[in-house]
Amino acid sequence: MAIGMSELKKGLKIEIDGIPYRITEYQHVKPGKGAAFVRAKIRSFLDGKVIEKTFHAGDKCDEPNLQEKSMQYLYHDGENFQFMDTATYEQIALTDDQVGDVAKWMIDGMSVQILFHNNKAISVDVPQVVELKIIETAPNFKGDTSSGGKKPATLESSAVVQIPFHVLEGEVIRVNTETGEYVEKVK
Protein backbone atom coordinates (compact mmCIF):
# COMPACT_ATOMS: atom_id res chain seq x y z
CA MET A 1 0.00 0.00 0.00
CA ALA A 2 1.41 3.40 -0.99
CA ILE A 3 1.67 6.24 1.52
CA GLY A 4 1.05 9.77 0.20
CA MET A 5 2.62 13.07 1.27
CA SER A 6 -0.43 14.06 3.34
CA GLU A 7 -0.21 10.89 5.47
CA LEU A 8 3.40 11.41 6.61
CA LYS A 9 4.01 12.06 10.33
CA LYS A 10 6.71 11.62 12.97
CA GLY A 11 7.31 7.98 13.92
CA LEU A 12 5.76 6.56 10.71
CA LYS A 13 7.63 3.66 9.12
CA ILE A 14 8.13 3.94 5.35
CA GLU A 15 10.11 2.12 2.66
CA ILE A 16 12.09 3.88 -0.08
CA ASP A 17 14.01 1.87 -2.71
CA GLY A 18 13.62 -1.31 -0.65
CA ILE A 19 15.10 0.22 2.53
CA PRO A 20 12.88 0.66 5.63
CA TYR A 21 13.02 4.04 7.41
CA ARG A 22 11.37 5.74 10.39
CA ILE A 23 10.47 9.44 10.17
CA THR A 24 12.27 11.21 13.05
CA GLU A 25 11.45 14.84 12.16
CA TYR A 26 8.68 16.22 10.00
CA GLN A 27 7.95 19.72 8.69
CA HIS A 28 5.11 20.73 6.36
CA VAL A 29 6.23 23.72 4.25
CA LYS A 30 3.87 26.07 2.37
CA PRO A 31 6.02 28.50 0.35
CA GLY A 32 4.56 31.77 -0.95
CA LYS A 33 4.98 30.55 -4.52
CA GLY A 34 4.62 26.98 -5.68
CA ALA A 35 3.15 23.87 -4.17
CA ALA A 36 3.44 22.75 -0.55
CA PHE A 37 5.94 20.04 0.33
CA VAL A 38 7.13 18.02 3.32
CA ARG A 39 10.72 18.12 4.56
CA ALA A 40 11.55 15.11 6.72
CA LYS A 41 14.52 13.51 8.45
CA ILE A 42 14.37 9.75 8.16
CA ARG A 43 16.48 7.11 9.94
CA SER A 44 17.37 3.85 8.21
CA PHE A 45 16.54 0.68 10.15
CA LEU A 46 19.41 -1.12 8.39
CA ASP A 47 22.38 1.09 9.30
CA GLY A 48 20.94 3.82 11.56
CA LYS A 49 21.98 6.65 9.23
CA VAL A 50 19.76 9.76 9.15
CA ILE A 51 19.07 11.48 5.83
CA GLU A 52 16.93 14.44 4.82
CA LYS A 53 14.24 13.80 2.24
CA THR A 54 11.77 16.18 0.59
CA PHE A 55 8.34 14.86 -0.40
CA HIS A 56 6.26 16.76 -2.96
CA ALA A 57 2.53 16.43 -3.71
CA GLY A 58 1.95 13.20 -5.60
CA ASP A 59 5.08 11.49 -4.23
CA LYS A 60 4.38 8.04 -2.83
CA CYS A 61 6.40 5.72 -0.63
CA ASP A 62 5.70 2.15 0.30
CA GLU A 63 4.71 0.65 3.62
CA PRO A 64 7.54 -1.66 4.72
CA ASN A 65 6.98 -5.33 5.48
CA LEU A 66 7.96 -5.14 9.16
CA GLN A 67 7.20 -7.53 12.01
CA GLU A 68 8.21 -7.23 15.65
CA LYS A 69 8.94 -10.29 17.72
CA SER A 70 9.71 -10.51 21.43
CA MET A 71 12.97 -12.41 21.98
CA GLN A 72 15.42 -13.02 24.81
CA TYR A 73 18.94 -11.56 24.71
CA LEU A 74 21.40 -14.37 25.47
CA TYR A 75 24.97 -13.05 25.18
CA HIS A 76 27.57 -11.24 23.04
CA ASP A 77 30.04 -13.69 21.52
CA GLY A 78 32.67 -11.08 20.61
CA GLU A 79 31.33 -10.49 17.10
CA ASN A 80 27.54 -10.80 17.30
CA PHE A 81 24.71 -10.45 19.76
CA GLN A 82 22.78 -13.71 20.21
CA PHE A 83 18.99 -13.75 20.69
CA MET A 84 16.50 -16.59 21.21
CA ASP A 85 12.82 -16.92 20.36
CA THR A 86 11.35 -18.20 23.66
CA ALA A 87 8.51 -20.01 21.87
CA THR A 88 10.54 -21.97 19.28
CA TYR A 89 14.03 -21.80 20.89
CA GLU A 90 15.34 -20.65 17.50
CA GLN A 91 18.44 -18.44 17.80
CA ILE A 92 19.47 -15.48 15.64
CA ALA A 93 22.58 -13.28 15.62
CA LEU A 94 22.75 -9.52 15.03
CA THR A 95 25.90 -7.47 14.41
CA ASP A 96 27.10 -4.54 16.53
CA ASP A 97 25.86 -2.12 13.83
CA GLN A 98 22.36 -3.65 13.82
CA VAL A 99 22.07 -3.48 17.62
CA GLY A 100 23.62 0.00 17.88
CA ASP A 101 23.42 2.14 21.03
CA VAL A 102 20.80 -0.02 22.76
CA ALA A 103 23.55 -2.57 23.54
CA LYS A 104 24.55 -0.56 26.62
CA TRP A 105 21.12 -1.25 28.20
CA MET A 106 21.01 -5.02 27.53
CA ILE A 107 21.87 -7.70 30.08
CA ASP A 108 21.79 -11.48 29.66
CA GLY A 109 18.25 -12.88 29.84
CA MET A 110 16.52 -9.55 29.08
CA SER A 111 13.40 -9.58 26.90
CA VAL A 112 13.78 -7.29 23.84
CA GLN A 113 11.86 -6.55 20.64
CA ILE A 114 13.55 -7.66 17.40
CA LEU A 115 12.39 -5.92 14.21
CA PHE A 116 12.21 -8.07 11.07
CA HIS A 117 12.10 -6.67 7.50
CA ASN A 118 11.00 -9.26 4.92
CA ASN A 119 11.69 -12.00 7.54
CA LYS A 120 15.28 -10.78 8.12
CA ALA A 121 16.23 -9.42 11.56
CA ILE A 122 17.39 -5.80 11.22
CA SER A 123 17.28 -4.05 14.63
CA VAL A 124 16.63 -4.30 18.36
CA ASP A 125 14.46 -2.22 20.71
CA VAL A 126 14.79 -2.40 24.50
CA PRO A 127 12.02 -1.36 26.90
CA GLN A 128 11.80 2.40 27.53
CA VAL A 129 12.56 1.88 31.23
CA VAL A 130 14.90 -0.85 32.47
CA GLU A 131 15.98 -1.93 35.96
CA LEU A 132 19.74 -2.30 36.36
CA LYS A 133 22.07 -2.85 39.31
CA ILE A 134 24.79 -0.31 40.14
CA ILE A 135 28.18 -2.07 40.15
CA GLU A 136 30.42 0.95 40.74
CA THR A 137 29.91 4.48 42.11
CA ALA A 138 31.57 6.87 44.53
CA PRO A 139 30.72 6.43 48.22
CA ASN A 140 28.51 8.92 50.07
CA PHE A 141 30.01 11.76 52.05
CA LYS A 142 28.56 13.72 54.94
CA GLY A 143 26.41 16.53 53.57
CA ASP A 144 25.26 14.70 50.42
CA THR A 145 21.50 15.05 50.14
CA SER A 146 18.82 13.48 47.98
CA SER A 147 18.02 16.87 46.43
CA GLY A 148 21.63 17.79 45.75
CA GLY A 149 23.84 17.11 42.76
CA LYS A 150 24.65 13.94 40.92
CA LYS A 151 27.51 11.45 40.63
CA PRO A 152 28.40 8.96 37.85
CA ALA A 153 27.51 5.29 38.30
CA THR A 154 28.47 2.26 36.21
CA LEU A 155 25.61 -0.21 35.74
CA GLU A 156 25.73 -3.99 35.26
CA SER A 157 25.14 -3.46 31.51
CA SER A 158 28.29 -1.24 31.37
CA ALA A 159 26.27 1.96 30.81
CA VAL A 160 27.26 5.02 32.86
CA VAL A 161 24.48 7.29 34.17
CA GLN A 162 24.28 10.23 36.56
CA ILE A 163 22.55 9.33 39.84
CA PRO A 164 21.71 11.26 43.04
CA PHE A 165 24.30 11.15 45.85
CA HIS A 166 22.06 9.09 48.19
CA VAL A 167 21.93 6.08 45.82
CA LEU A 168 24.58 3.48 46.70
CA GLU A 169 26.60 0.77 44.98
CA GLY A 170 24.72 -2.55 44.80
CA GLU A 171 21.26 -0.94 44.60
CA VAL A 172 18.92 -1.42 41.65
CA ILE A 173 17.66 1.63 39.76
CA ARG A 174 15.28 2.36 36.90
CA VAL A 175 16.79 4.13 33.88
CA ASN A 176 15.07 5.71 30.85
CA THR A 177 16.79 4.10 27.84
CA GLU A 178 15.77 6.87 25.42
CA THR A 179 17.33 9.73 27.43
CA GLY A 180 19.88 7.75 29.46
CA GLU A 181 18.63 9.37 32.66
CA TYR A 182 18.06 7.99 36.15
CA VAL A 183 14.34 7.60 36.92
CA GLU A 184 14.14 6.21 40.45
CA LYS A 185 15.54 3.71 42.92
CA VAL A 186 13.80 0.32 42.99
CA LYS A 187 12.38 -0.37 46.46
Any chance you could write out the topology, listing elements then pairs?
Elements (H helix, E strand, L loop, with lengths): L1 E3 L8 E4 L2 E11 L7 E8 L5 E7 L3 E3 L3 E11 L3 E5 L6 E5 H4 L11 E7 L2 E6 L3 E9 L12 E6 L4 E5 L7 E5 L4 E5 L2
Antiparallel strand pairs: 1-6, 2-3, 3-4, 4-5, 7-8, 7-10, 8-9, 10-11, 12-13, 12-15, 13-14, 15-16
Structure description:
By secondary structure, the protein is mostly beta strands. The protein is built from one helix and 16 strands. Strands 9-8-7-10-11 form a five-stranded antiparallel sheet. It has a five-stranded antiparallel sheet with strand order 14-13-12-15-16, with no helix packed on it. The chain is flat, with a radius of gyration of 21 Å.
| Number of alpha- plus pi-helical segments | 1
N/C terminus separation: 48 Å
Task: Tell me the major beta sheet.
Answer: 5 strands, antiparallel
Helix content: under 10%
Question: How does the helix and strand content classify structurally?
Answer: mainly beta
Globally, the shape reads flat
Report a brief summary of the structure.
With 187 residues, this protein is mainly beta. The chain has one helix and 16 strands. It has one helix at 96-99, and strands at residues 2-4, 13-16, 19-29, 37-44, 50-56, 60-62, 66-76, 80-84, 91-95, 111-117, 120-125, 129-137, 150-155, 160-164, 172-176, 181-185.
